Amino acid sequence: MKTALVTGANKSIGYEVARQLAQKDIYVFLASRNLENGLDATNQLKLDGFNNVEAIQLDITDDESVKNARAEIGKKTKILDILINNAGIYGGYPQAALDASIDQFKATFDTNVYGVVRVTQAFIDLLKKSPEPRIVNVSSSQGSITLHSDPAYKYYDYKGVVYLSSKSALNMYTVVLAYELKNSHFKINAVCPGYTKTDFNGHRGTGKIEDAAKRILKYAFIGKDGPTGKFFSEENNPETEEIPW
């Protein structure tokens, strides 16, 4: 049975990603900063008939927590096939370039960028043992510098400097990581789930959580000839899904 780790998996898109992975007979580690919330999520999945799920305490902003999660998962499996770096924060307000505080930037980058780096580096040894390792970094079209330079972009006027810059940085990490592992079996991509109705945006989104999860998982299951080091958003490019950095 293949294994997967999903960060921020106790609610919203992360929870749905975990559920859909479990549906595909993947053993899923649901990472949650608060273990009790993670246990509540796995208990609900078990009530729905999924026994191939397990809660893991993992605060991606804490080095010791990531280290402990790696040790705990390492006791249960020697191989990790899929890593979904889903956990993220918006960063609060204000988000104007001249008003956002340095503390806002630090906290947001600590989760949206450094957290992804911590988790990826901690679990890369288990991923390397998989015959088809897949990493999906959950990004946002809001992190596209090209799109945000184009007045025709539908979210052109939605410019939150803290969140946008963190996702741009995440995208660059994705590009470099994919480059470094280009001669391996890894497939590593950044995927925008779309403007989804979740707690993250105060339920102002228009998309469904189920569809967002499907968009993410599409790139968790791509074949050996699939893309790597790319940026995808079905919402912004329904034809090929690839969007510019």
Can you walk me through this structure?
This protein is an alpha/beta fold. Strands 3-2-1-4-5-6-7 form a seven-stranded parallel β-sheet, with helices on both faces. The protein has a domain of 159 residues: Rossmann fold. The model has no long low-confidence stretch (mean pLDDT 95). It is built from seven helices and seven strands.
> Which sheet architecture does the biggest sheet show?
7 strands, parallel
Structural class: alpha/beta
Strand content: 5-15%
Helix content: 40-55%
Using the 3D structure, state the CATH architecture of the domain at 74-232.
3-Layer(aba) Sandwich
Question: Would you spell out the secondary-structure blueprint of this structure?
Answer:
Elements: E1 3-6, H1 12-23, E2 27-32, H2 35-47, E3 53-57, H3 63-74, E4 82-85, H4 102-128, E5 134-138, H5 145-148, H6 161-180, E6 187-191, H7 209-218, E7 231-232
Parallel strand pairs: 1-2, 1-4, 2-3, 4-5, 5-6, 6-7
